[in-house]
Amino acid sequence: MQGVINVLKPSGMTSHDIIKRLRKLLNIKKIGHSGTLDPAATGVLPVFVGRATKAIEFFEKDDKEYIAEICFGITTSTADAEGEVVNIYPHPFEINREELEKILVEFIGEIEQIPPMYSAVHYKGKKLYELARQGVTVEREPRRVRIYSIKVMSVSSISAVIEVICSKGTYIRTLCEDIGEKLGFGAHLLKLRRTRSGPFDIQNAFTLEQIEENIKNGTLEKVLLPVDKYLCNMPAVILEYPDDSFFIKGRLIHEDFSHLAKQEGKFVRVYNFEKFLGIAVVKSIEQQVVLQVYKSL
């Protein structure tokens, strides 16, 4: 058994809870995911099963899309609705859409974020949230992330819903908190839904109930899809060998790959006839374009 399931994570479960549930449903231990979601968050969680777990590295740097609801006027210890209230803005205020859109422009591009204490970032061998639960606060190094776009979806008197397209590692909680600080009212993240992670879209995601139903009906193939389906950003190379024994990690494949000359250093998907074998790297050796087997999948 191998492949990828685009899971629609519900609120109230950790990403690891999803893995534990699927291990039990599929009766297989080798399962992993890319792009952790906070317990309260919902949305796309790509889950890799069997040999497909070896492909996780090709998805770890994927851009993400989120729908976030911001509550203004209140800050919390975790920058989201799960934390304790730290401060309540004492004066009446009302969010102005035009002013909000003007502020959001300042966050587009490469920005620095300080990881929240309630996060899985490691500090001297411990995760920050473990220290935070002990009441310990440590200095964190800012991290560079990129915000590609922020769109205002709706605005009420004290809240707003925004769509964010961003790079890996962006903390939407921190973004909401920083937006509130810029406006002068303070803010926290009220709700978060991930609508896309790289090639995984929420329109094609499956709930745990749908996955379980397909397992019971013997139609697992409807939700467990081949990993190469999601690697379409890599060029495909189709070979015609009598068997697959040639595809061994590190081995060079010599064919006429001149059409890949501009792809030097990049990954390609390799097929033997219609069978997907894995990933290779395009290299130039002695003025000849060759493929070097990187990973069998």
TrEMBL record:
<keyword id="KW-0819">tRNA processing</keyword>
<dbReference type="GO" id="GO:0031119">
    <property type="term" value="P:tRNA pseudouridine synthesis"/>
</dbReference>
<dbReference type="InterPro" id="IPR020103">
    <property type="entry name" value="PsdUridine_synth_cat_dom_sf"/>
</dbReference>
<comment type="function">
    <text>Responsible for synthesis of pseudouridine from uracil-55 in the psi GC loop of transfer RNAs.</text>
</comment>
<dbReference type="InterPro" id="IPR032819">
    <property type="entry name" value="TruB_C"/>
</dbReference>
<protein>
    <recommendedName>
        <fullName>tRNA pseudouridine synthase B</fullName>
        <ecNumber>5.4.99.25</ecNumber>
    </recommendedName>
</protein>
<feature type="domain" description="Pseudouridine synthase II N-terminal">
    <location>
        <begin position="23"/>
        <end position="172"/>
    </location>
</feature>
<dbReference type="GO" id="GO:0003723">
    <property type="term" value="F:RNA binding"/>
</dbReference>
<dbReference type="GO" id="GO:1990481">
    <property type="term" value="P:mRNA pseudouridine synthesis"/>
</dbReference>
<dbReference type="Pfam" id="PF16198">
    <property type="entry name" value="TruB_C_2"/>
</dbReference>
<comment type="similarity">
    <text>Belongs to the pseudouridine synthase TruB family. Type 1 subfamily.</text>
</comment>
<keyword id="KW-0413">Isomerase</keyword>
<feature type="domain" description="tRNA pseudouridylate synthase B C-terminal">
    <location>
        <begin position="173"/>
        <end position="231"/>
    </location>
</feature>
<feature type="active site" description="Nucleophile">
    <location>
        <position position="38"/>
    </location>
</feature>
<dbReference type="Pfam" id="PF01509">
    <property type="entry name" value="TruB_N"/>
</dbReference>
<dbReference type="InterPro" id="IPR014780">
    <property type="entry name" value="tRNA_psdUridine_synth_TruB"/>
</dbReference>
<dbReference type="GO" id="GO:0160148">
    <property type="term" value="F:tRNA pseudouridine(55) synthase activity"/>
</dbReference>
<dbReference type="InterPro" id="IPR002501">
    <property type="entry name" value="PsdUridine_synth_N"/>
</dbReference>
